[in-house]
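Why run this: before we spend reagent on co-expression, it is cheaper to look at a predicted model of the complex and decide which construct boundaries make sense. The entries below are exactly what would go into the expression plan.
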Amino acid sequence: MIIKSKLKSNKGYVFTYEAIVVAMLFVILFYITYFTYSHNYLSFQEERRNIEDFEKANLMADMLFKEHEFPSDNYAPDYKGFLGNLTIRYGNSKKIPGTFDVYAIDSLDTNNTNTVKCVHFNVSIDNYDSNVNTTYIEYIAEYGNNSYVKTRNLLVPIKTYRYSNTSRIYEILKEGDILYFAVGNSSELVYINASINISSNEEDEEAIFSVNGVPFKLTVNNTPYITGFGKVIATYNSEGYEPNEIRLLNTTNNVPINISIVYNQSSTIYVVKLRPYNISCVIDMEYLFR
Amino acid sequence: MWKLFSRGGVKGQVSLDAVIAILFLLIIFSLIGYNVLNTANSFKESEKVERAHATIDVFENYVLTAYSKEIAINATFEPMGDLNYTIYFSNKSIPVTNLTYITFEPNGTHVVINGAPEMSSNENLDKNEVKISFGEFYVSRIIPTDIK
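The model came back. Tokens follow.
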């Protein structure tokens, strides 16, 4: 009733200024609703896209970790033969699950030049040693402003080595380490001994090993102790190098244990030592999704 | 009721005031009406494009998951309402006109994708490019993994 009286002029039939104001109010109301709706709609889309970016970054990180699984192609041909025999233990995938190869080239650089700039791995490994790698990659720890970081605990091949004409190898194992070794010809194992570097008044170290899947519990001190590992060690077979596995599962005081492996004659000995490290995959969201 | 006919003049004549008033209302309502229709239309279009991007995103996610987890995925794709689309990659095309099963199988360095029905296409896209055509428009994306 009020609106009707406001719309109608008392003097004539012409629409008054008030009527125009009311019409304007309708228009303004319409635009407020319109802007609110489109704002909400657009911000919803934006938000959804951000969530999708995170999902994508997560999947990208998984993919990049996959591309970096050990072993990559970047090893000397004869060493690759040894690695081939090793990966058979882990099924058909030709890669060892849960590993990170520091010599794997980021295969993405052939696909998408943009990705390489935005992806890097934060690898802080004390030292890795190799005489069979064909590439060298510098991993830089660097975080952008808008980074997606995924960290995994992965086994890193800190030592990939070929000993030529050797009958005795010497390795230091820490808790969690896995050592694989294979011997090149028909040489036979003489013994494997274990020791630790402590002064004689310190207590002995209790260590649990798994050798080719068989558990061994040893008490190790600074006098080299000949282990019973030899019973379960495979030697050269006609089909190639048979890798042996020594895992150090547990130690009481976290003291590194020295392992000496002695053969009766000199030959080529292949060694790979894996140690768990935290590896972070850093994806720069700002550049990757532009 | 408003009086739309003049009181004093010739009978039956529409007053100039009424004509102006009607014109004024027409202008306002055509303005608002135009905006309403246009908004509805543009929302419809943007929704279509959004869903197209979502579809290609899902496709990419399946490829990445199949590759990095080394698992075969059997996924279903449906048309967007009554809007059919065709997925193109390498030299294959998979038309999605009703519920379509697409398998993603990892094969070492790449992922093999098969659909039913599956046709060959002469598009010959790059080994890591995927394109979804909706007839009036298409979306394409370079994905980080090779597909066949």
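The CA atoms of residues 124 and 141 of chain B lie 14 Å apart. Helices of chain B lie at 16-69. Bring this page to Monday's planning discussion.
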